Amino acid sequence: MDTLNYEVLAKSGYNGYILKNAPEKVLQFGEGNFLRAFVDYWFDLANEKADWNGKCVLVQPIAPGLAKMINEQEGLYTLYLRGSENGRKIDDKRVISSVSRCLNPYEEEGFKQMMDVAASDDLEIIVSNTTEAGIVYDPACKLEDVPASSFPGKLTQVLYHRYKAGKKGIIMLACELIDNNGKELLKCVNQYIDQWGLDDGFRKYVNEDCTFCGSLVDRIVPGRIRDPKEVAELEQKHGYADPLLDVGEVFGVWVIEGDTKLNDVLPFRKAGLESRVFVTPDMSPYKKRKVRILNGAHTG
Questions:
Q1: Could you tell me where the DSSP H helices lie in 196-244?
Q2: Domain range holding 246?
Q3: Buried b (16+ CB within 10 A) or exposed e, 67-89
Q4: Is residue 1 part of a domain?
Q5: How confident is the model at residue 81 (pLDDT cuts 50, 70, 90)?
Q6: Listed residue (256, 174, 169) closest to 208, CA to CA
Q7: Residue 162 covered by a domain
């Protein structure tokens, strides 16, 4: 059975939405099951429903990762959203084509490619989900590291390179499951600006030209299917093998904290997704609601 790529997908007879070529507008730190079933899914819908015409470049946040596998599949993977909605059982398949490639910055060429994306005119958004331990200031990181070991260190390298290239500021969407994720990330970047002795112009660029947003993510993502029998059945049904196949629940909400003007900048409102992905000046009511629902579900 051939492994999924654009040529194999065409031969399989898949007739869903696919976008093969588009500018790389998103740099995404994290390539695991959650981001691919959540963030990349919403951008995929934005391409289909709003003609956003953008791709996401993924970056391995740690040395072991999925870059090789993702690149072999040309960024394509199958996503199943499963569960129930309005009393109806859902088992929807979608091939996600919002990912262009994945970079391994722990290899010299991957680090260079990450910096090339950083200095691109097409780049608009940086997204991260580097686990709860990802947003941490590590004073051992240096500007000249290839790459800095911490995620905030890498982000500071990326933003400094972009600043020196004279490119516009970006929108930073932090998805890590910690309180005030966007503010904590910005705090770490400012610590590296101090430690590395970077100029005041760059500090102004980071704090004024770039927009750091915290966010609340809500979707259960079981990830890959572990039953070999079901995997074999799906391969026969699809007409291709897909080691990157991902599974998430139907329900999904992405609450982004920031100036509501960003609703007009990000592609989600235009795509008709405003009930699922939206910007609000204060996400604390949504966080409170999520915690209460989760706590209620686990109390018995």
A1: 200-204, 228-238
A2: 6-297
A3: beebbebbbbbbbbbeeeeeeee
A4: no
A5: very high
A6: 169
A7: yes
Omega within 30 of 0 (cis) for the link into 147: yes
Query: Distances in Å between the alpha carbon of 10 and those of 71, 95, 223, 293?
Result: 18, 12, 25, 42
Residue 84 is encoded by which pair of tokens?
């129930």
CB neighbours of residue 254 within 10 Å: 21
Is 286 among the domain residues?
yes
Return phi, psi of residue 62, to 5°: -130, 165
Contact 278, 269 (CB under 8 A): yes
Of 100, 160, 150, the residue nearest 128 (C-alpha): 150
Q: Using one digit for the tens of pLDDT, what is the confidence trace for 237-294?
A: 999 999 999 999 999 999 999 999 999 999 999 999 999 999 999 998 998 887 766 5
Structure tokens at 264: 């007009």
Token duo for residue 31: 């390539």
Specify the 3-state DSSP secondary structure of 173: strand
Q: How many domains does the chain have?
A: 1
Domain CATH code at residue 193: 3.40.50.720
- What DSSP string describes 16-31? S-------EEEEEE--
In a domain, 189, yes or no: yes
> What residues does 26 pair with on adjacent strands?
56, 125
Instruction: Say if pTM beats, i.e. exceeds, 0.85.
Output: yes
